[in-house]
Amino acid sequence: MPSNILKLLRRARFLSTRHRIEWYPPFWLMGVKVVELEENWDRVRLRLPLTALSRNLGDSMFGGYQAAVADPVAAIACAKQFPGYSVWTRSLSLDFQHPGSSDLELRFEFDAGVKEAIRIDLEKKGRSTPEFEYGLFRSDGVRCTRVHCRVAIRPRGYRKA
To answer: Domains in the chain, please, with CATH?
Structure first.
């Protein structure tokens, strides 16, 4: 059943990208809203609300919610920038620096230098494993969580030797 929903969302061309993201089942259940989304995913802003379900015992955002919203962003951005490749999150680490005591905003920007390095890697090696840093910010502007993400970009059908 869930895979049918995902296929429907991918094929529903009448839906905007914004709605596809917000209606992606895990994001929909968490109440994620798109604040800003550039067409090529150079810049992404997602709001993750602090609710009774996302609040931990310390009255701040549960880390699993933060990880779930942070996980796919860099990989999707790479897939949009470099179509024709298989792309996935290789590793993800979160550094919880301050309590997430309000709604959080994920802020991702695709650095032009990283994009060029990926392009060179793909031309020379046919693959790339770039690293990204982005964050989740409280409503007062404080970055409460630093996200470090490595993305694997490989030719379609890639199998590790």
So the answer is: 2-155 (3.10.129.10)
